[in-house]
Amino acid sequence: MSQYIISPEAEVSLPIEGMTERFPVRRVYCVGRNYAAHAREMGDDPSRDLPFFFCKDKTCVQWVAPGEDNFIPYPQATKQLEYEVELVVALTKGGKNLKLAEADEAIWGYSVGLDMTRRDLQSQAKQKGRPWESGKAFDHSAPMSSIVPRNGEAILNQGDIALSVNGKLMQHSNLTHLTWDLAEVVVKLSEQFELRPGDLIMTGTPENVGAVQAGDIMEASVEGVGKIVVQVR
Questions:
Q1: Of 15, 77, 200, 202, which residue is least crowded by CB atoms under 10 Å?
Q2: Is 220 domain-assigned?
Q3: Is residue 202 part of a domain?
Q4: Would the pLDDT of 48 be above 60?
Q5: Does residue 58 fall inside a structural domain?
Q6: Domain range holding 215?
Q7: Dist. CA 66–CA 226, nearest whole Å
Q8: Is position 5 within any domain?
C-alpha cells in the first residue's frame, strides 16, 4: 500500500445535473480575450490575435449550489477584485492536435463560471513581464455551477451570456460573438497541451469587466446552461 508523508487532499469534482455521478476536475484552462469587444477594452487587436491560454489550479474551483447562500471571500493582497462571466466546457475525451470533429466529440457538457481576477496583481505582473498566476489562480477564483450534460445535442454556438452586480446588468453579450468558437478553442488548446478527460475550459468573457467589493452580489448566467448567484464577503 502506498504511503504519504502527509494526507493527500480530496479530489475536486462538480455535481452533474440529473445524475448521481460527479465530474472529476483534472485541470482548468482559461482562454484570454475570446470576445472581440473585451480584447479591445484590454488593449488588444482581436483581428490579429490567436487565442492564448493560462491555467487555474483545480483547487480554485468552487461549486455554487442553486438556491443557497453562496459566497466567496474577498481575497488577500488585492484592492481590485474583478468579475468575468464565462461559459465553461467539460471534456470527457482528450488528445493532441485534435481535428474539429474530434474536438466536438470531446465536449461533454457545460457550466456557468466566474473567472475572478485580482486585476491589480495581474496588471503589475504584465508590466514586469511576469506570469499572471497571482492575479488569476488564487483560492475561490473559479466559482462554477453544476455540469449540464450536452446529451448529444449540437455544440452551443449562440445564447445570451450575462452578469449583474447588485441587480445592475454589467456584462451582456452572446456566444455568437466568440472570436473562436468552442470546438476551435479545443483544437487550438490541443496544439499546445495534451488534453485529458476531466479538463475544464473557461472560454472567455465579454466586455465590461469590473470590480466588486465585499457585500456585492453577482448573478452570472448563460442561456441554455443556467445561472449562479455569489456574494463577496
A1: 77
A2: yes
A3: yes
A4: no
A5: yes
A6: 13-232
A7: 10
A8: no
- Contact by Cβ (8 Å): 100, 184: yes
Sorted by sequence, the CB contacts under 8 Å of residue 120 that are 6+ apart come out as 78, 79, 80, 135
User: How many domains does the chain divide into?
Assistant: 1
Mean pLDDT of 67-71: 93
Res 44 pLDDT > 70: no
For 148-198, the pLDDT digits (tens) are 999 999 999 999 999 999 999 999 999 999 999 999 999 999 999 999 999
CB of 111 closer than 8 Å to CB of 217: no
Residue 64 has pLDDT above 80, yes or no: yes
Answer yes or no: are the C-beta atoms of 54 and 132 closer than 8 Å: yes
Residues 6 or more apart from 1 whose CB is under 8 A from it?
none
Which residues pair with residue 104 across a beta bridge? none
CB-CB contact of 57 with 28 (8 Å): yes
Q: How far is CA 31 from CA 11, 84, 90, 166, in A?
A: 24, 12, 14, 27
With a cut of 90, say whether residue 91 has pLDDT above it.
yes
